[in-house]
């Protein structure tokens, strides 16, 4: 991977990623999607998060009868990565539905804690995806308590 010049967000340098790696992320998000536990919405979502270490962490949504306790695929992937000791990330893919889906507001906020990364929004099948930056999905994210005076 090569570094992008002068691209920073919350002090984190943005890393350029090859098209092959992006497609791998989309494919892994689509594959893990089938493991989703979603008896209430029947909307299976998969996510694949590339850490700066080069490892990829996946997650699927896990719903609950207490709907507010539901965990999205993106946060499942992130907490798996955090549990493994990762703290720096390169990109995340999310896959679900017939049309590309975008992370919900909670996931955008949780991901923003670790800096700006490309977000690949894909459908459940196919290689098409929409690539956007997390900072575009969640401008002016809340990332530090020091702003609260
Ligand atoms: Zn979410």
- State which percent range the strand residues make up: 25-35%
Provide the CATH top-level class: Alpha Beta
CATH architecture: 3-Layer(aba) Sandwich
Sheet/helix structural class:
alpha+beta
Physical arrangement of strands within the biggest beta sheet: 4-3-5-6-7
Output the CATH topology: Cytidine Deaminase, domain 2
What are the segments in which pLDDT stays under 50 over at least 5 consecutive residues? 1-6
Q: Number of helical segments?
A: 4
Structure characterization notes:
It contains four helices and seven strands. The longest helix has 15 residues.
Task: Give the topology, please.
Blueprint: E1 3-9, E2 12-15, H1 19-33, E3 45-51, E4 56-60, H2 73-83, E5 89-96, H3 105-112, E6 118-122, E7 129-133, H4 134-137
Parallel strand pairs: 5-6
Antiparallel strand pairs: 1-2, 3-4, 3-5, 6-7
Bound molecules: zinc ion (ZN).
Please tag this protein with its features.
single chain, alpha+beta, 5-stranded mixed β-sheet, two-stranded antiparallel sheet, 4 helices, 7 strands, 28% strand, disordered N terminus, binds zinc ion
Compose a concise summary of this entry.
The protein is an alpha+beta fold and 149 residues long.
């Amino acid at each position: 991977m090569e570094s992008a010049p002068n691209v920073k967000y919350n002090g984190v340098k943005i890393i350029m990623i090859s098209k092959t790696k992006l497609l791998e992320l989309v494919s892994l998000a689509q594959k893990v999607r089938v493991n989703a536990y979603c008896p209430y919405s029947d909307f299976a979502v998969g996510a694949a998060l590339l850490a700066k270490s080069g490892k990829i962490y996946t997650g699927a949504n896990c719903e609950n009868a207490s709907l507010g306790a539901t965990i999205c695929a993106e946060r499942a992937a992130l907490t798996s990565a955090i549990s493994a000791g990762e703290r720096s990330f390169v990109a995340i893919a999310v896959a679900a539905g017939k049309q590309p889906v975008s992370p919900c507001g909670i996931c955008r906020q949780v991901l923003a804690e670790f800096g700006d990364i490309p977000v690949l929004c894909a459908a459940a099948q196919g290689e098409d995806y929409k690539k956007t930056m997390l900072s575009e999905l969640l401008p002016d994210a809340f990332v530090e308590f020091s702003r609260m005076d």
